[in-house]
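hey so i finally got around to running the thing on that chain from the lab meeting. sorry it took forever, my laptop kept dying and i had to restart like 3 times. anyway pasting the input first so we r on the same page abt which one it is
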Amino acid sequence: MESFDLLRSLLLFTLVVYFIYDYFETKQIKDEREELIRLKTFELVHKTTTSTLCVMAVLYFFFPWIPALYPILAVILSFLYTEILGKIYFRRKY
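ok and heres what got predicted. didnt touch it at all, straight out
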């Protein structure tokens, strides 16, 4: 039960960080550079989330005693953190 509370806290923290980041993200001026960053980020998010989903499906297939919450949580966290970190990376790159 203690690990469930830790996972719940991690997910809540992630959602708060994501919504705060998204709030400040909408305040920025949109131009061609930002559109390129957005497209590159979503391409990276798509690839990362798909890879995470495939890895979690294989792990769940070979280790069925793993609670289903862990693969779902891994996919959600990979989606959210890849979007945040991808935008930061591509802003520095472009």
